[in-house]
Specification:
Blueprint: E1 2-5, H1 11-19, E2 28-31, E3 45-52, E4 59-72, E5 75-87, H2 95-111, E6 117-123, H3 127-135, E7 139-150, E8 161-163, H4 168-176, E9 185-186, H5 189-199, E10 203-208, E11 211-217, E12 224-228, H6 231-246, E13 261-268, H7 272-288, E14 293-299, E15 314-324
Parallel strand pairs: 5-6, 13-14
Antiparallel strand pairs: 1-3, 2-12, 3-4, 4-5, 4-9, 6-15, 7-14, 7-15, 8-10, 10-11, 11-13
Helix pairs in contact: 4-5
C-alpha cells in the first residue's frame, strides 16, 4: 500500500468511491458532483491524501485537509479542516490498516505547518465516521444543526434588497461581529472564499429591514441525493409528494434524484418579523430559480434561526470534533456555521 498526494487523474476513481459510499444514519446521502477536488478551491492551502493498492492501482481510501483562520477561544488561530474521508467499499475490512498509514502521513505534514488545531464534522448518527474521528484522537464537541427546508411557493415581500455582487469584506464583517459570543468563526472568507463565489455569481446578500442573509448557490459543489429514509419519514415524503402533485406549492426531494439546494450560510435579525419575512423572500426567490431545498445552520443550543423557519423542516445534526496541537481539551461557545464544511 502506498500513501501519496492525490492527483487530478484520480478524480473519476474518487468520484466513484464517493457515489458508492453513502453517509449513513437515519437519512442516507450520497454525493452526485462532477469534481471531487472542488472543495479544495475554497481554501488558500491544503492537501488530499489517497491510499493506493500497489498490486492493482485501486484507491483504497482518501482524506482531505484545508487550512484557514478561525476565531477560537478569544483569539485568531490557524486551523485545518479534515474532510472527504472515504473508503472504497471493496476495502471496508482493511479500514484500520490504510487509515493508520494515512494518519501517520497526515501527522508528518501537519507537524511542519503552523496550524494550532484540527477539526472535522460528521452526522451524529453516522456511527462509523464518529468512531474514525475518535480513533484519530479528535475530541467531540459542539453540534451544528442543519435545517433542510423544502422550497415553498410564497407571495412577494416588499422592501427586499438583493445584492448579487456584494463586497467580500462587507460579507466578512457579518462574521467578525460574531466573535464576542461564538467560536470557530471563519476570519478569512473575505480574502479567498467569497471573491471566488462572487465572481461565479453564486453568492447573494439579501436584506429586509433588520434581517440579513448570505445565500450560496451550491450547484456543482455540494450536490447530493437522498438514497435511503427511515420508514416513517419515507411514508411522510410519499404523502407530501402526493399532496404537492395535487397542489403544486412545495418541492419535495425524490429518492435518488440530484438535489439543487441553496445554503443560507448566514442569517441574523433583530426583529423576528423581519427575519420571518426575509425567509419568505428567500423561498420566493428560490422557487423562481427551481431550487428544491434551502439549508440553514445553527448551533444546537440556539434557536434564533430555527424559530423563524416554520414547521416543515428536517434536522440533520453534525457533530464537530477537534484535536489540539498542544493536546488541550477545548470547551467551545456556540459555533457559527463555517461555510466550507
Amino acid at each position: 500500500m502506498i500513501v501519496r498526494q492525490a492527483k487530478p487523474e484520480d478524480n473519476e476513481k474518487l468520484l466513484e468511491i464517493e457515489r458508492t459510499s453513502s453517509q449513513e444514519g437515519s437519512i442516507w446521502f450520497a454525493s452526485d458532483r462532477k469534481d471531487f477536488f472542488v472543495k479544495m478551491n475554497h481554501f488558500d492551502d491544503g492537501f488530499m491524501l489517497v491510499a493506493e493498492d500497489e498490486k492493482n492501482g485501486d484507491i483504497i481510501g482518501c482524506v482531505g485537509a484545508g487550512y484557514a483562520d478561525y476565531w477560537l477561544e478569544g483569539r485568531k488561530q490557524r486551523g485545518v479542516y479534515m474532510f472527504g474521508l472515504r473508503t472504497n467499499p471493496k476495502y471496508r475490512m482493511r479500514l484500520a490498516r490504510w487509515l493508520k498509514a494515512v494518519i501517520q502521513k497526515m501527522g508528518d505534514i501537519l507537524e511542519n505547518s503552523d496550524v494550532e488545531f484540527g477539526f472535522g464534522s460528521v452526522k451524529v448518527d453516522n456511527i462509523n465516521s464518529v468512531k474514525i474521528l475518535k480513533h484519530m484522537k479528535f475530541e467531540p464537541t459542539r453540534v451544528l444543526n442543519i435545517y433542510a427546508v423544502p422550497v415553498m411557493r410564497k407571495g412577494k415581500v416588499n422592501g427586499i434588497s438583493i445584492d448579487e455582487e456584494p463586497d467580500p469584506q462587507a460579507l466578512q464583517s457579518y462574521y467578525n461581529e460574531k466573535i464576542d459570543d461564538h467560536d470557530l468563526v471563519p476570519l478569512d472568507l473575505g480574502q479567498n472564499f467569497f471573491p471566488k463565489l462572487i465572481a461565479e455569481k453564486k453568492i447573494k446578500l439579501i436584506k429586509h429591514n433588520t434581517a440579513t442573509a448570505i445565500v450560496w448557490d451550491t450547484l456543482g459543489e455540494f450536490d447530493v441525493k437522498i438514497t435511503k429514509l427511515p420508514i416513517a419519514l419515507k411514508l411522510f415524503r410519499d404523502f407530501a409528494a402526493f399532496i404537492t402533485f395535487l397542489f403544486p406549492f412545495i418541492r419535495i426531494p425524490r429518492l435518488n434524484d440530484p438535489i439543487h439546494s441553496w445554503n443560507v450560510i448566514f442569517l441574523d435579525y433583530k426583529d423576528r418579523k423581519d427575519g420571518k419575512r426575509l425567509v419568505k423572500a428567500i423561498h420566493n426567490l428560490a422557487w423562481k430559480n427551481n431550487i428544491t431545498l434551502l439549508n440553514f445552520g445553527e448551533d444546537s443550543e440556539l434557536a434564533k434561526v430555527k424559530n423563524i423557519l416554520g414547521i416543515l423542516k428536517f434536522t440533520v445534526p453534525f457533530r464537530f470534533a477537534l484535536i489540539d496541537r498542544a493536546r488541550n481539551k477545548k470547551t467551545l461557545r456556540p459555533v457559527i456555521w463555517p461555510p466550507r464544511i
